[in-house]
Amino acid sequence: MVSAMDLHGDQHVARYLETDGQDGFHWRNGTEILILFTTGRKSGEQRTHALIFREHEGKYLVVASKGGAAAPPAWFVNLSAEPRVEVQIKGDRFPATARVATPEEKPAMWAKMVEVWPDYDEYQKNTGREIPVVVLERA
To answer: For residues 60 and 76, what is the distance between their CA atoms, to the nearest angstrom?
Structure first.
């Protein structure tokens, strides 16, 4: 059996959902994972993504880094087209609205995310695009 620390992609999502986060909520380097449900902008189909998150003032933060790639992750493009999403944290699944952190709030939010995943700073150095922090608010 694969360790929860080695889970990635669809396998991570499946194990997380099957176990209400018992497998997959706690991940590498002390990070915590949520499942983001977006609507495909072209297909209209539900898409799922396991993402590092942090709670911040009653909201949830995720980073659209894609490892510092030039293009943003597909989930970010999808939620930009349709900001009504669903989020699951452990066994709690709820509707939410996604938005990009404002320039005023981003520095503190970015710092909070870098505390748990320092590689975000390296990803930003390696790409010409500004990597957004996405704020997920319960609907």
So the answer is: 15
pLDDT in tens, 47-97: 999 999 999 999 999 999 999 999 999 999 999 999 999 999 999 999 999
- Return phi, psi of residue 75, to 5°: -60, -35
Q: pLDDT band for position 3 (50/70/90)?
A: low
Amino acid at 83: P
Lookup: tokens for 42: 């072209």
Residue 17 tokens read as 């959902």
92 CB-near residues (< 8 Å, 6+ apart): none
| DSSP state letters, 49-75 | EEEEEEEETTEEEEE--GGG-SSPPHH
Burial of 106 (0-12, 13-18, 19+ CB in 10 A): middle
Instruction: Please check the confidence at residue 112 and state whether its pLDDT lies above 90.
Output: yes
Q: Is the pLDDT of residue 46 over 70?
A: yes
